[in-house]
Amino acid sequence: MKQSKLLIQTLRETPRDADVVSQQLMMRAGMIQKAAAGIYSYLPLAYRSIRKFEEIVREELAKDGCQELLMPAVLPAELWQESGRWKFYGDELLRFCDRKAKAELAERRQRGETPDEREYYNFCLGPTHEEVITDIVRKNVRSYKQLPMNLFQIQTKFRDERRPRFGLMRGREFTMKDGYSFHVDDADADREYWAMFNAYKRIFARLGVKFRPVEADSGAIGGSFTHEFHVLAGSGEDAILSCDGCEYTSNIEKTEAPALPVGDHGPALELQYRHFHTPGVLGQEDQARAMLLPMTQTSKFYLFKATFSDERGEKKVGVVLRGDHEVNAVKVKNHLGASDIELLELEVAEAISGAKSGFIGPVEFMNGKNAAGYVFGEYMLVDSSLQHAVNLSCGANSTGYHHFSFSPARDLPGCTFADLRMAQEGDVCPRCGKGRYQAFRGIEVGQVFKLGLKYSKSMGCTFLDEQGRENPMVMGCYGIGITRTVAAAIEQNYDADGILWPWPIAPYQVHLLSLDPGNAEVAAVAEQVERDLEAAGFEVLHDDREGMSPGAKFKDADLLGFPLRLMVGTKGLKEGVVELRDRRTKAVLKLKPEAAVAEVSAARDRIMLELETAGGR
Ligand code: ATP
Ligand code: MG
């Protein structure tokens, strides 16, 4: 391919609205163009990488007998109402009316009515396709003999993300591979889960990036167990903790916190109401300092508002933690089985407590001696590290006062102890009891999920077993963010000059530079090398642009970052050589033009070997 004809415009300067490296480099390298917030066109170079990654995904899934299909992007509300997700999926679901619904709406408005437009939304853009695939399978599969079945698509998804950012990493429109499997029983769904887990390991290993499968929270989608696959990169939005002594690796949202040894603090003292006059003592550190206590003898108290999708509706929830620990809101939410939780606004918390922030504490929320007269009962949650703790400090719900001899088990009768805190780097791993957690940052590029009966029950997706009895199918679902993965590969592979493409998804493998294309000999040799390499199966971008200095071509080549650069120039040809440069190591090799295919092949073999053995170059 001739670069003079390629649709590309490289930029010297970093665009101001690009926040992360992959976005900056993809924009500077002329790979993507923004159409609206979180909505991009993939220009030819980016699309080549995306399609290469898609092919890797297809090849590996074919090995497990997965079948590819393509579902619509515009989905009818009815299916979503059947599964119940129409009600619970938030504003990320872009809903709208079709022509018919709009006409009905207009008619009512004409009659002077003021109907709620949302009631007329009858379609949405698909953010994920559990409903549609379940509908397909329930209509086409009847017998246990047709199961198991694993179906996938590679398709454009739309999620109206609250904060689209980071280019392809968190778009509103993006490409996802989403797969769904259907089984006669739990055991077979488990088998497929691990088959997909292993397929994902092969896929990301082939990509040539450093990645980890991590145990993850099952979130809103519901279901029993799940792993996320993360590309490791400093810019990753997710925190991961990995034990250095065993395999346990998990998203910090879910990482189990270890039990802690209980210090010997003597007998529990009697709690005295408004025990300690502490004006101006606000944060935990102030508490510790003012009361001459170590941080581990102080406590923190959070007030949350939990929303439930059942008759419980909305509840206020108290969470008590040791002063030096952080609350893990995902653990709190899961413990309660809530659909959402958020911290209570400060003013509300102060109003119900009757004290200024810094002096709000749990004890009076168990005996009703707070301004609002609340009794939390089972909605008072205490981190398990405090189960045997005695004589802690805590706010006394009266501005200027703290308690001193707070003993949670005694002073919060009826409370629940659970693992509610963030695990931390350096914590002893509770799984093996020996290793310690190390922290990483990761970009979630894929997820495997055991769904169980969630959709098959609500949507009546059943099969007849050997005895002719009707049973719901057990389901799994498996996603890979195709476009996010390509961006994540860049987040992990770049230097000050540009991208360092892993060979398997580089838009082109060889960047052939004609350094003085005006010189007939240079042009002829470059043409010949291009033909030879392409005939040998290599993908070559030939920078044949005229009137550009070698320096400017080198800069562009570094920015585009294809693994190998082959330079043909007047000076070299005088000595009968061209130069081959490894983009990553910068090592340069002089060779005869006729040896180009042999040397490029040798370089490719070396790069691929490194990639396979090191899990990313
Ligand atoms: P996140 O937690 O990052 O919002 P998710 O867990 O909601 O992602 P899934 O429903 O698991 O996403 O979707 C499968 C995959 O699709 C994700 O692992 C991710 O790689 C990709 N993906 C999800 N949201 C986006 C997005 N807004 N832009 C690009 N890729 C995305
Ligand atoms: Mg996910």
Describe the structure.
There is one protein chain. The chain has 617 residues and is an alpha+beta fold. It has three domains: 44-92 and 127-256 and 437-489, Bira Bifunctional Protein, Domain 2 (BirA Bifunctional Protein, domain 2, 2-Layer Sandwich); 272-418, YbaK/aminoacyl-tRNA synthetase-associated domain (YbaK protein, Alpha-Beta Complex); 508-614, Rossmann fold (3-Layer(aba) Sandwich). It contains 18 helices and 31 strands. The strands form eight sheets. Strands 3, 7, 8, 9, 10, 11, 12, 21 and 24 form a nine-stranded mixed sheet that branches. The chain is globular. The structure holds adenosine-5'-triphosphate and magnesium ion (MG).
Which helices and strands, and how do they pair?
Elements: H1 21-28, E1 32-36, E2 39-42, H2 44-63, E3 67-68, E4 74-76, H3 77-83, H4 85-88, E5 95-96, H5 99-110, E6 123-125, H6 130-140, E7 149-158, E8 173-183, H7 186-207, E9 211-215, E10 225-232, E11 238-243, E12 249-251, E13 276-277, H8 284-290, E14 299-307, E15 314-322, H9 329-336, E16 340-343, H10 346-353, H11 364-367, E17 380-383, E18 392-395, E19 401-406, H12 408-411, E20 416-418, E21 437-452, H13 454-458, E22 462-464, E23 470-472, E24 474-481, H14 482-492, E25 494-495, E26 498-499, E27 510-514, H15 520-535, E28 540-543, H16 550-560, E29 564-568, H17 570-574, E30 578-582, E31 588-591, H18 596-614
The structure holds adenosine-5'-triphosphate (ATP) and magnesium ion.
Adenosine-5'-triphosphate is lined by residues 128, 159, 161, 170-171, 174, 176, 444-447, 479, 481, 483-484.
